[in-house]
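Technical note accompanying the year-one report. For the benefit of new consortium partners, we illustrate the data format agreed upon in the data management plan: each record pairs a sequence with a structure-token string. No post-processing was applied to the example shown here.
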Amino acid sequence: MSETEFTYTLYVQADPARVWQALTEPAFTRRYWGLGFETDWRVGSTMDWVERGARTSDPEQVVLECVPHRRLSYTWHTFTPQWAASVGIDEDLRAELARERRTKVTYEIEPVGDTLARLTILHEDFEPGGTLIGMCGRAWPMLASSLKTLLETGAPLPEQGHPNERGSGGYETHGTEV
């Protein structure tokens, strides 16, 4: 992890098409992430984030690259008061996040033999020394692990702090243990 980006690589016992499905279909993303994306996945299309009853829409929240089963990139989301209220983030922290520049997430999916896929997650363009990189740096390992666990076992990891809910949650960890 640098001051402006980090990369996670994991190996998933699933073919690239299944990994792609887990990254793009709301029925999957809701199970391990707690949110669904509403978009047509065409380059330039906007993405609505629907999480815990809050819809986050923004014309700058867009698909940057989309090569099915291989590569997906989009701008990281907009921090609205509605989003913050739905995930339990106070207004001061939300405003701090909103002041930082927009980041970008890229997924690369590569087949490894007949039964594995290598998924590389690159999250970049963070504000050096900003709050968001620390929050995302704590949240991505759990999120990626939950995606992997869902694909390999049929169930995501339980959300910490919410033993009766499934999935690792759709918001970045904010100062609490992950």
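Partners are asked to follow this layout when depositing records. The chain has a mean pLDDT of 89.
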